[in-house]
Specification:
Its EC number is 3.6.1.22. The protein has 4 helices and 15 strands. By secondary structure, it is of the alpha+beta class. It has 2 domains: 109 residues, Nucleoside Triphosphate Pyrophosphohydrolase (Alpha-Beta Complex), CATH 3.90.79; 126 residues, Nucleoside Triphosphate Pyrophosphohydrolase (Alpha-Beta Complex), CATH 3.90.79.10. The chain is globular. The mean pLDDT is 92. The structure holds zinc ion (ZN).
Amino acid sequence: MTIEFIYHPAIVPGEDSPQTLSLYFLGERLLLKPEVMDNAEHILPWTTDSVNQDPRLELLLGSVNGVPLRVVGLADIPPGFKDVALRDYLLAASDDIFRVVNAAAQLRYWRSTQNFCSRCGTLLKPIINDRALMCPSCSYRSYPKISPCVIGVVRKGRTLLLAHSNRHRTAMYSCLAGFIEAGETAEEALAREIFEEAGIRIKNPRYLVSQAWPFPHQLMLGYLCDYDSGELNIDTTELESADWFDIDNLPQLPAPQTVARKLIEAAVEQVRNE
Ligand SMILES: [Zn+2]
């Protein structure tokens, strides 16, 4: 099934009609009908079921195949639904469902954390012709927050630099990544992050792919790059370990849906094609 998703151009509540689709959240968790949970790739996470609760938050995300889709934040789990970690759901979802749930989760987070003007403290109001909230007192506009990050795989001959983060619960190794600082280019941020975290200087950064990542609002810009100089010297506040792995002997890698995995696979293919 093809899913055509179109954003609604403003922050408005969803309408309650029999056709309207709802995507339910309880805080950071997604609420699903139990039959969906083992088969996220094939069964849609939204429903026409209307739950008999006062929503804490409701907004129209856009349309899916021409049907309005609203995001609803609830205070409790309604009968017939179960809660699931957003990350677990997304890592099993197909690309087009990933895109919609990703957008929904980011909008929900932003809307649930933006209530008052950060300049003067007045209650913010939706704007009818823009995807933003505005302060009726000082006209400050709050737009959905997006935090740009860089993520890169460093290549040295047949080996790739991969790291095991302190935050990972499994033995997984991934690419190095970090937030772009104010005033930096993406390439400068990539070089800085890899040097800070691993003591390695890079060269030839090549942009490959990006991915929005709703934990809570990153935009990951993915790069391939080459080793230039330096010895591994890891920042132990961020990383537990890091190493150069031969492409035929890679450790446990991130899930296929992640930009990290796409970068690693692209780097492996590049080495094999030489
Ligand atoms: Zn204000």
